């Protein structure tokens, strides 16, 4: 294989092209899992029977009344499972549970001729429950010592000794909530059995190979007897990495038992109440600084809310611990992690995969400590940025650390920060009840799966006799533009126009044993595999062309559908003609490509090694305006400079940066998951289970001015065409908005005061933070208060 990073002359990568399905999306003709029903007859519909308790034992289950409902065909229970009654990779998630572990847990499923028949049948099933004590909050779980899984530690130096000798020592804590994925397409699976007994599952899944494995596991089959396809997803964000497996297994089990196609498609309420979310976290920390505000030590305990089963909680916690440093050098570190077991949905992957939770701890810490140190928050952050030659607490060198400083300076200049700070100061002096503030935060995010074995990929490339090309790879498309980038990689590697390349749906019978499309590694892994396959083919074609042009194969060049030789530009061969000739010379015109990320090693027990191929860097400046009377705020402007290496597809990358940032702002400022934690009959019920009760970012929450710039001249060696991942890192640039809100709140109080801000920093949370800041102000003489306006009291503002 040629160097992964090298680009030929006039490559197709790096060119701004539209998303490969853009036309289908805007015309409404793009097909998703549930759309395939029209191609099949006699489809059965599945509906879950959901438990009304947070924790209970199932003492009886009678499905016979459901069978009396017209249109009901079958009730699926644990007794119907021919294989193993479990849909989790840790063997801790019964598909049909005998013990209810969260409110809404599905205890059985009803199949009907219509969705309405299945719904009515589910309502007729008689289930007896014995309620059991439940744990819903992190505080309850910690007090009860309810933990699950490993409890890892990341350590470097002597944190205790460094804290003892620190010039400044602070301690604190923070608890912050999760986040609902709220992808447009809810979980959906469709299954049937063909005449040979092969089980086919079309699933909205980010991990087809694992879905295949779980379905086979439940059915008692070998993996090769199950084929899983993912045409495309209407969003995933990590929520379709592990969670689809059980729904696919229900569809497949129903199809095997009835001999008819079975469809599972959750409505929005079912999706929110049945599937996992971003992990909430609780953190306690102690930090030490020297006289110049440089971090000397950090000691912390992170507790994540894993919900009722492990799912991906262990690797999520590990990544959180590996990112608690974010972009900052901390010489002495001791961080402990643990996973709480609660009676809630099993929390799962979400864009950033623990990285945002770890980074939130350090960014919150710096934002709170800056005024206590008498430093501007931006200056405190700048002083602590990694320098070349330094390494992370888990032992990985921070390569290209100088990019952090260059990006920091570039975003300050592009955002015209100095001039705008003067304008903000003047505005604040003239507006006692409306204040503005501006904040800058960086990001350093490791790219690769922490588990080294997952960093591999395969691809299958076919070149047909007319020169057209079909590619299959193990990655899945969920709107992020992966397929677009892969077409560009194939076109560049073969030297043909983009129009020559077509991409087939992801299927386990084409590319086996694939890793999940996750960890922002989809383009790195699958792009490397596609490039490998294409280069095998082009090497064979070069031999054919060399004989025809009478030159050495190394001198053959492929570009824009034409094959030429160095120094022989007057002689050329059309790519299609060369392929035709190669066929008649019995040259293989297909290849299986493979890629594995080199240079990785990770000891999960010791939490030491180099788990990441590289780090993605970026920085954002955000300005906000807050209203003291209501806590409402506006995002006035955001400027971002982000490092994507040499972009494979600039339009796609900019779109991902914008979308990731807005999703991060949603998590940090709007999206508030609320459960009924009372001791009443609805304990454990999720109250925010629809679009009407769960607040999502909309156009009104977008920055009024939004500027995104790709960091230039940033080739990343050892990665496909010098690019870098883009999916997850931009989400963490949203910390700039939260920190701007904190600094705006601070202007209502005395200087040098720590501002604690809840997360999510909803308008309500901002309002109370402003109240606390104002209450901390010294009371001025009566004459000085004239004209300042009354400060509403807590009672009067909340009494309505």
Q: Could you give the topology of this structure?
A:
Layout: H1 22-27, E1 44-50, E2 56-62, H2 64-67, E3 72-76, E4 99-100, E5 106-112, H3 115-124, E6 126-131, H4 138-143, E7 147-148, E8 153-156, H5 159-165, E9 168-176, E10 188-193, E11 199-203, H6 208-219, E12 226-230, H7 244-258, E13 262-265, H8 268-274, E14 281-289, E15 295-305, H9 313-322, E16 332-340, H10 355-373, H11 377-384, H12 402-414, H13 417-430, E17 434-447, E18 456-463, E19 469-473, H14 482-494, E20 501-503, E21 506-507, H15 522-549, E22 556-559, E23 562-565, E24 568-574, H16 575-584, E25 590-596, E26 601-603, E27 608-610, E28 614-627, E29 633-642, H17 650-669, E30 705-710, H18 735-746, H19 763-775, H20 782-785, H21 794-798
Parallel strand pairs: 1-13, 11-12, 15-16, 19-20, 29-30
Antiparallel strand pairs: 1-5, 2-4, 2-6, 3-5, 7-16, 8-16, 9-14, 10-11, 10-13, 12-21, 14-15, 17-28, 18-19, 18-25, 22-23, 23-24, 26-27, 28-29
What key attributes describe this structure?
800 residues, alpha+beta, Aldehyde Oxidoreductase, domain 4, Aldehyde Oxidoreductase, domain 3, six-stranded mixed beta sheet, 21 helices, 30 strands, 24% strand
Quick description:
By secondary structure, the protein is of the alpha+beta class. Helices cover 30% and strands 24% of the residues. α9 packs parallel to α10 (355-373).
